[in-house]
Write a structure and sequence with these properties.
The chain is an all-alpha fold and 137 residues long. The protein is 56% helix and 3% strand. The protein has a two-stranded antiparallel ribbon.
Amino acid sequence: MTELQAIREALYPEASKKQTRRQRRAERTRAKALSPLRILLLLASLPVIAGSTAFGVYIRTSPYPPELALRHIAALAGCEVAALAGLPEARRGEPGYHLRNDADLDGVACGTTLASASMEAQVPVQHAPGQAKFVRP
């Protein structure tokens, strides 16, 4: 504190407690920047930014054309999504092949057609009457 400021404070003690407009604006800016909601939103946006960056890098560096690379990524979700994306059956090394979609490990992912898969799903499973998992006493 300079000598002049010390004299002002001694003469006008109430003025030293009064904040200037610049100090009030600085405090508002600091409070806004450090608000818990803002920090939480910034932290929540990190996975979104990282995922979109990784997705963009994959599309640019993929050996497939961009549209086919998008279909290849969509096939990761399962055989139904692969069929909707236009990749109903894929052999090892082709776009749309993912090991998780190759149930019998024969090198062909999503080898069954959707019609046969839906027919299998419609057949009800028969259980013996005495083999219930939970039985009332």
